[in-house]
Amino acid sequence: MSKLVRIMCLSAVTLLMSACATTFSGQVSSFHEWQAQTSRVYVVERAPDQENNPEYKVYEEQLRRQLGISGFQEADAQHPAAIKVSMAYASNIAELQVSSLHPALYDPVWRLHFRRGLYYGPYWYPYPPLFPSDLSVKRNYLHQLELRFSEVQSGKRLADIKVSTEQLNPAISMFMPDLLALALQDFPQPNGSTRVIELQKTTKEVK
Fold first, then answer.
1. By C-alpha distance, which of 83, 80, 81, 89 is closest to 60?
2. What is the 3-state secondary structure (H, E, C) of 95-130?
3. Cα(30)–Cα(191) distance, rounded to whole angstroms?
4. Virtual CA dihedral for 49, 52, 56, 61, nearest 10 degrees?
5. Is the pLDDT of residue 171 over 60?
6. What pLDDT shows up at residue 110?
7. Rounded to an integer, what distance in angstroms lies between the CA atom of residue 179 and that of residue 159?
């Protein structure tokens, strides 16, 4: 009996851990002319508006960390840079969903009950007034990351990687490590490919 209890407890713990595991997914597009012999010694190239940007500098450190995980080496006195890596990112409202349980919004002729956007309540109007509390608004945010790899000497573009994900949280800072992990997963990914990739989430989202 004790053996059965141990097996049941182990199964329960395993199930609980799998239920708690969180994943992160995004769409990754890769276009490149990367060769197997290309050196992976890099230097990060900043745009002029990124030089004095504290937010960018945090993401740049995360980029360096992820590049190291992916087999790249940052240039130093003994190892001159062969490639330069630049990064750009942005966030926008991707979708705005408005829903309501108010019956007027499900009435096929509800427009007849409104005039110039204001409540128009003739005596036969069958529904209670529509208040803001009757509406539920859900916003989805599109977070995007782009990495560019170029040769230091010639400036030739070697790879462009774009990652996008839709999330409820508007702060891209919550997802930047995960976006970088997606961008560099199995680098270089097949040329001209656009895939949805799912990984274990590296950061915990604060709501």
1. 89
2. EEEEEECCHHHHCCCHHHHEECCEECCCCCCCCCCC
3. 6
4. 130
5. yes
6. 42
7. 17
Residue in the structure block whose two tokens are 């110039």: 116
Find where tokens 């329960």 sit.
Answer: 12
CB 204 within 8 A of CB 24: no
Q: Cis before residue 188, ω within 30 degrees of 0?
A: yes
pTM listed for this prediction = 0.70
The answer to whether 32 and 157 have CB atoms below 8 angstroms apart is no
- Mean pLDDT across 30-54: 96
- The 10s digit of each residue's pLDDT in 3-22 is 444 544 444 444 444 434 58
Residue 71 burial (CB count, 10 A): 9
Joined tokens for residue 121: 């309540």
Rounded to whole angstroms, the Cα distance separating 150 from 84 reads 5
**For residues 161 and 189, what is the distance between their CA atoms, to the nearest angstrom?**
9
